[in-house]
Amino acid sequence: MNVQSKLVLSALCLSALPLAQAQVGDFEDFGRVTRVQPRVEQVNRPRQECRTEYVQVPVRQAPPQRSAGGSIIGGIAGAIIGNQVGGGNGRAAATAAGAIAGAVVGDRVDNQGQNYAPGPDRVQEQAVRQCRTVDAWESRTVGYDVTYDYRGHQYTVPMSYDPGQRVKLRVTVQPEQM
């Protein structure tokens, strides 16, 4: 065999190699999808719900301020008058009685008999914010169970996506070992 014949024979063998490998190995094909079932998971995402309510709150009114000026002036005037009326040891008693009576009269005149007891409670509206945590459940698709038909056989596999009407397959062909 000459060199030229050997080269032609080698070229033919090398070109036939991919065909021989295609017979034993992997190839791609498609299966017909017959069912897609989503796998759904329930997830709780708690959230806050708040609202504002208006409530009636009692407010205590402070009593008005009393004036002491009338008591002082009335006490001084009563003491002077009592001192003028009494004599001897009775003068001191008359001065004290005049001071007390003058203070009472001066207070009533100055404050005009107003009622200084605490007034009735007033009602004031106040905004109150109330919040609470509520469960918020969400459905989340975490994958798909895909059933497909390939050459008359049914197969079911989990997938991360919905493949549509057909699924791409990688088919491996191997000779049976004896």
Automatic annotation (TrEMBL):
GO CC terms: outer membrane
Entry annotated with the keyword Membrane: yes
One of the Pfam families matching this protein, by short name: Rick_17kDa_Anti
Alphabetized UniProt keyword annotations: Membrane, Signal
Signal peptide region: 1-22
Localization annotation: Membrane
Domain Glycine zipper 2TM residues, every copy: 69-109
Keyword Kinase among record annotations: no
Stated name of the protein: Glycine zipper 2TM domain-containing protein
